[in-house]
Amino acid sequence: MNFPKTLVIIPALNEADSIAHVIGLIQQHAPWADIAVINDGSTDDTRSIATTCGAIVLNMPYNVGIGAAVQTGFLYAAQHGYEVTVQNDGDGQHNPQEIPLLVSDLITSGSDLVVGSRYIEDRGYITPMARKVGIVILARIISLITRQQFTDPTSGFRASSQRTIRLCARTYPHDYPEPEAVVLLHRAGLRLREIPVTMNPRYGGKSSITPIKSGVYMLKVILAILIGLLRPAPFVD
C-alpha cells in the first residue's frame, strides 16, 4: 500500500527504559513514517536517547500532561503537512507492528479516527478488575452519547485523518484526552471507528495507575464528558 505522509506521535515522560525499543520497532514496521517524541518534562535520558535514535524531539518546558503533549504533536503535524498521525505510547504497550493496520483501515474505511481496542477480541490482555469495570462503564456512557458502540475509549493507540489533525491542533482535551476526544470528534461530525489490536505488557518503567486512582479517574472523566456536552460543538474547517 502507498501510505500517506504520516507522523507517529509519542508522548513520553521518563521513558528512558523503553523509548529506544519503541522507536526501533516503529522504524522497522512503519519505515515510511516520521516519529515525533514529545518529551514531557522528563528528568531521565528520554530526550537524548530519542534524539540518538533519529526521532524528532519536541521538548516541553515542564510536565504539561499527556493532553497538551499530544496536542503539541497535532500542532506539529498540522504545520508540516502530515496527512495522518498515529498516537503510540512510549512504554511499549502499543504494538508498532499494527501501525500499518491502523493507517490502512483509516484510509480504506474513510474514517477520521480509528481507535485500536483491546476488548473487541480476547487477545490475552489482562486489565486489573477495578480498571476494567470503570472502562466498561465509561464505554457504555460514550456509546450512548455517540450512538455508536465503543469498547475501549481510553485506548491511546489511534490513527487520525487530516480533518482530525486540524481540529485537534486547534482544540484538544487536556485532562482526560482519549475518552473526551472521542466525544469531541463525534460532536464535530467526524467519522470514528474501533478495530481490534493486541496490547503488550509495559516494556519498561512502572504505571502510576493504582486501583484507587483508576476509580477516581473514571468518575472525573465521566463528569468532564458530561460538562463538555454543555459547550458548543466544535467545527472542522
Q: What is this structure's SSE topology?
A:
Elements: E1 6-12, H1 19-29, E2 34-39, H2 46-52, E3 56-59, H3 66-79, E4 84-87, H4 99-109, E5 113-117, H5 129-146, E6 158-160, H6 162-170, H7 177-187, E7 192-196, H8 211-228
Parallel strand pairs: 1-2, 1-4, 2-3, 5-7
Antiparallel strand pairs: 4-6, 5-6
Helix pairs in contact: 3-6, 5-7, 5-8, 7-8
What global shape is seen?
globular
Radius of gyration: 17 Å
Number of helices: 8
- Provide the structure class: alpha/beta
Strand line-up in the sheet with most strands = 3-2-1-4-6-5-7
By oligomeric state, this entry counts as single chain
| H-E string | EHEHEHEHEHEHHEH
Helix content: 40-55%
The proportion of residues in beta strands is: 5-15%
Mean pLDDT: 93
Ends distance: 28 Å
Strand tally, please?
A: 7
Uncertain ranges = none
Largest sheet: 7 strands, mixed
